Amino acid sequence: MTGFGSFARTLVVGLLLGFPIVASSAPPSTPPSAPKLERIQVSRDGSHFVGATTGKRFIPWGANYDHDESGRLLEDYWQSEWATVESDFREMRELGLNVVRIHLQLAKFMETADRPHAASLEQLRKLVRLAEQTGLYLDLTGLGCYHKRDVPAWYDALNEADRWAVQVRFWKAVAGVGRDSPAIFCYDLMNEPILPGAKPETDWLAGELGGKFFVQRITRDLAGRTREAVAKEWIQTLTTAIRSIDDRHLITVGVIPWAHVFKGAKPLFYAPGVGDPLDFVSVHFYPKKGDVAGSLAALRVYDIGKPLVVEEIFPLGCSLDEAIEFIDGSKAFCDGWVSFYWGRTIAEYERQSDLKSALVGAWLKRFQKQGPLMQPPASERHE
């Protein structure tokens, strides 16, 4: 699940769980200077992230920049309101973040099945330059179809093979923009891909949440294949496309942690022999109230010998204290955490009187305060 979801749901959850409204930590009085970026890679032993030049350990501590406070997706305003994007990047830097997860919508980047949208690619180049200037790395998540009304009819009408071919062209175009920039942390193939069960499905999208579709099927019909075989072929197809253009930056796919939903569930996209081309594991976790230990146990299922990043984290179903407890508890085996930022500062949230603003503002304070505590000891900062 990406984004804040339904406000009504959050309001009810907040009232029931008693989210703390006030936190004591204060934001820095002066914004941190933007560091010089270097390409990030996996360490030689495959256990964590390091700078390609210095060998310094890198711990992603970031935010999903998936929509603004009103629910608009980035491509809906990044040309007409570029100053807002610039301001938001500075504000995320001031929060102590080092990674921004961007959700690129396929409809905005593919004019036709064969032709990428030149203006969107140029705007992405502009965003990459902004990231370089502000010292923020980008997690470029692709193939979004979050607003169903924007999805082209021609794309929905394609069969599996032709749809994957469009996805290949999308990723080749995006990788062409990112390949030479040190600001690219990774390419995330798709947000929360899923597969059908034994029966064919009729829709490519699933699980509407707050008017958005964050979950997408990579096929509608297994056609006698195993789910592992389809996932493997899809990953191989898209990673090969990216590697034909950019053979240096990291590749991942952000998944729903089914082990957090069904006891005993195992990874699919990161199963042995399926996710081999992926450089690290990305999972989306919303810890459960009263069961932080259970949430941590579910997260450990994805500790498979590659760097592990919690690519989404927010106290949606637990208290702020429990969310921080989850982050603290995962520090021993997890290598990065990415929460959310929707275009408002802590101070702006604190000037509002509604519960949603109080919750998000208080969480941003806690997340900001937690950041420095997640850095490794000096003895572990270099390979």
UniProtKB/TrEMBL annotation:
Keyword annotations from UniProtKB, A to Z: Carbohydrate metabolism, Cellulose degradation, Glycosidase, Hydrolase, Polysaccharide degradation, Signal
GO process terms (BP): cellulose catabolic process
GO molecular function per UniProt: beta-glucosidase activity
Glycoside hydrolase family domain location: 78-288
Single GO cellular component term: cell surface
Signal peptide span: 1-25
Family matches, as Gene3D superfamilies: Glycosidases (3.20.20.80)
SUPFAM superfamilies from the UniProt entry: (Trans)glycosidases
Entry keyword annotation includes Phosphoprotein: no
The UniProt record lists the keyword Hydrolase: yes
Source organism, top-level taxon: Bacteria
PANTHER family: ENDOGLUCANASE, PUTATIVE (AFU_ORTHOLOGUE AFUA_5G01830)-RELATED, GLUCAN ENDO-1,6-BETA-GLUCOSIDASE B
Protein family per UniProt: Belongs to the glycosyl hydrolase 5 (cellulase A) family.
Protein name listed in UniProt: Glycoside hydrolase family 5 domain-containing protein
Organism: Tuwongella immobilis
